Amino acid sequence: MGPGDSEQVGAILHALKRVLLEHHPDQTRGYPTKLEYAQLDGYIASSGFNRWTANERKMASDAWYNVLTSRFGTGTQPTNG
């Protein structure tokens, strides 16, 4: 990986976390556990992504979020009751 690649990985992971949180909130059905989310946060932090400015983080995360949701769809959110 070249310079900046690890930060890009952080942006992808952050966007992936947003997709998971927004579209798979029911953790009783095999979706990521709180521990797995914590590990994901650790990977994001170690990538250097958290050292970006808030604006850089938002732009990178939004860009990858759009890629992920357009490529894989968002599915349907579980309804309560």
Topology:
Elements: H1 5-23, H2 34-46, H3 54-72
Quickly describe the structure.
With about 80 residues, this protein is mostly helical.
Task: Tell me about this structure.
This is J domain-containing protein. The protein is an all-alpha fold and 81 residues long. The chain has one domain (5-72). It has helices at 5-23, 34-46, 54-72. α1 (5-23) packs across α3 (54-72). 15% of the residues are buried.
Encode the helix/strand succession as letters: HHH
Number of helices: 3
Low-confidence stretches: 77-81
Category from helices, strands and their pairing: mainly alpha
Rounded to the nearest angstrom, the distance between the terminal CA atoms is 47 Å
Percent range of helical residues: 55-70%
Give the percentage of residues in beta strands.
under 5%
Any idea how many domains? 1
User: Which term fits the overall shape?
Assistant: globular
Count of distinct strands: 0
What is the averaged pLDDT score?
Answer: 81
Radius of gyration (Å):
14 Å
State the major sheet: none
Organism: Mycobacteroides abscessus subsp. abscessus
Protein name: J domain-containing protein
Descriptive tags:
J domain-containing protein, mainly alpha, disordered C terminus, 63% helix, 81 residues
